[in-house]
Amino acid sequence: MGTNGDVDVVMEDTSQLPLNGASDMAIDTPRTSFSVLDYVNAIRFKHGIKSEEYGRFHAYCSKRLGILRKQLRPFAIKSNKYVKEEFPEVINDARYFEILALRSERAWSHGMLLKSQCETSQTSGSNARHHYVKRFEKARKIAVQMEELCQKFAEVNSINNARVYKSLMEGIVHFENKRYQEAFTCLSAYANVMDQRKRINQDNKALAEAYASQLGQVNAIIKLCSFHMRVSGTKSTTRPVARDEDQNAELLSIVAEADGHLTLYCRGAPLEISSQFLLQQLLDMINSLGRLIVSDETLSVLLDKEHIGDAIKTDLMGKVTKESLIASYEDVMVLIGECTDTIHSEMMSSIYDQEPFRRLEDAVMFIKNFLEMEKCAIMEIMTLYNLFLSKEQFYGDVALPDCGEAIRFAQMLKQQLAIVMKDNKIASLLVMPLEVTKTVNGLLFGMHKIACEEYDDGMALVNWAYARQRKSVGRPEKHLTRLIWRLVVCFQILHRAGYLCSQRYYKRSVAIFARKKFIKDVEATGKPDVCKIFGLEKTLLPCKPIIFDLAYIHNQPPDLSQKTTIIGGVRSMFSSLWK
Length: 579
Fold this sequence. Notes:
The protein is built from 21 helices and five strands. It is mainly alpha-helical. The strands form two sheets. Strands 1-2-3 form a three-stranded antiparallel beta sheet, covered by helices on one side. It has a two-stranded antiparallel sheet with strand order 4-5. Strand 1 and strand 2 form a beta hairpin. It is elongated and about 90 Å long. The relative contact order is 0.06. The N terminus is likely disordered.
């Protein structure tokens, strides 16, 4: 009988199912899909395992099993009558796999419930431990049977999921039987997959939290295994892989051997990847980089031309539209996504040797992030050039263009740079792009704030950005890899495009700032306060009127950041009065 009054129909041991006889019939049958890891992760997180409510989870499994058995039962039966349940010869319904997963989870949760009661009770019998270990053994046995059925009737991803799930149950049984080395191996393989799933779903907070919860529980057992192995003098079978990497080498490169096989290199170090299908996918992805609509030659021309405005107009805007640019990079992103899916599938198949796939996954993610930044940088260059040409799109009566789209791209660049710069080796190469992004962002926000009548903050940002943009940026070094070279060049062009906008809108921003300040001061006191225009509040010493006349020429204050032959700028001249 089931728990909490539920009628539990006894299920036939799947070891008696006609597995061998069904193999021929399953050849031409469409394979069923059932991701047991995602399913178990979902039901555990929703039904009590997060807070270690094993009784609640056990009751849910029993209830769900009853529902599934009624759905799959061909005819109605009496509630008190035993019916021998059988699986069909060919399984084409994922609910049969769900039944096995629920049976395994119910046995595991029952074992955890008995174990927690045994550990907290002071009067538990001598055979209490034997009872909960038996529950774990049953869960392992059902997990093995589920893997066998998946091998015959499910697709590859379902088989890999079942294999990893079986590794978890085997690890728990090994741990309870004090076979710590075997438990360490099985649970480490499961933890690797959970860590991978958590990283893949980091944008989905609920899913990432669920995987992190499972990972934390398994890691606690792994630490205990490691402790017992050290006490007994047993060494871990996992060995760190030596990495002879060259930081100046390409992130990924593939060499075709004489026999037609492909060899993969990651930062100059060979990776032992046996899947030729994956290597061919990577080769197609690498070759697609040469078909980007903005070629290396175009970037070189934009970098070398003296007049950046004319270069952007003829070599970029005249040949590329935003739609074609996005479509070009999207084609590469599709290939990168296919490579990533294949890598994850291979990691599931090779759960005991994941180091090469982890390095490959990191390299592919770097390529993806670099291309995303490159696309955003080029889109920002085109947007800034449109701002430079803008004549009609103004904020109300303020003669400044709408910077909303440019600000959005600048924020995207900041977020992408923050992700990539977590790697210390890459961060040292991206200092200049980060500073360029900050400068362009400051200019755009300053113009936006002035347009929104936040004159003090806006003028401070515009002046700060203009002073930084007047500084030159060195050319990229020749030893940089192709992707990093393209990225650095894009940000150099972005720096020059930002300066192009600054040259047009800086004096206009200063004039707007001064005019609004004058009007405010005249309305309040009847005369303009020159000191507030430049943020000075000290009492001035007597001086010649020529100094004040400099601030009134054509009602446009001079460029505060431009050095003069005397001291430098009106602000500096005023400051010199107290020296």
